[in-house]
Amino acid sequence: MKLLRIVKFFFLFVLGFVFLSCVPDVNNSDYQIVFSLEKYKAAKEKWENLNCSDYSFTYMICADYGKSPLVQVTISDGKTSYQIMEGVYESDSQEEDKKILEDSEKFFSVESLFNHIWASYEEALEIADNPPEGLLSRNIKVSYDDESGIPLSIEIGGTWSELACGDWWSLNVENFEILN
């Protein structure tokens, strides 16, 4: 009888160990932030050294919740103006339309692009101690213009385990032009 209890205990112990080893790891101890702080600082310094106050550029936002039209931003004589060049806000609902519109209105200067990148990095640092379940990494990928330093492409998203779905967001800048 005692031997039977020992065998049952051992069997349950082994079965429990096998079960736990098959459960996907959702422990976020491996959470990483994918971001090049050095490239960010170098690009921002290039932009600031350019000392450019009059310029224009176009951009478009794509996200998991929709897409913005192509927007042209012009900054001249300290005044900012923008114009929708082509396209419409594309999403699945009015609430998502509102969100993509609000996102679009945040980026009316090169400084606002840098500010958004920095805020995303700070957010990634804030959640590093307690990331959402399934979040393995926060990815902030940015390509910069070699001469001016302006962000040309910004991609922000996360790498998630198969137990969670992710979010992503990207902005592409084109047609940057210095006026005067």
What are the main properties of this structure?
alpha+beta, 180 residues, single chain
In short:
This protein has 180 residues and is an alpha+beta fold. It has helices spanning 2-22, 37-50, 94-104, 110-126, and strands at residues 32-34, 55-63, 66-67, 70-76, 79-86, 135-144, 151-160, 168-178.
Task: Provide structural commentary.
It is built from four helices and eight strands. A hairpin with a 7-residue loop joins strand 7 (151-160) and strand 8 (168-178). It is of the alpha+beta class. Residues 9-28 have low confidence and may be disordered.
List the helices and strands and how they pair.
Elements: H1 2-22, E1 32-34, H2 37-50, E2 55-63, E3 66-67, E4 70-76, E5 79-86, H3 94-104, H4 110-126, E6 135-144, E7 151-160, E8 168-178
Parallel strand pairs: 1-6
Antiparallel strand pairs: 2-3, 2-4, 2-8, 4-5, 6-7, 7-8
Strand proportion, as a percent range, falls in 25-35%
SSE pattern, N- to C-terminal? HEHEEEEHHEEE
- Indicate the structural class: alpha+beta
Quaternary state of the chains: single chain
Terminal Cα separation, in Å? 94 Å
Instruction: Name the helicity range.
Output: 25-40%
Uncertain segments: 9-28
Main sheet makeup: 8 strands, mixed
What number is the mean pLDDT?
A: 77
Overall 3D shape: globular
Number of strands: 8
Number of helices: 4
Give the radius of gyration: 24 Å
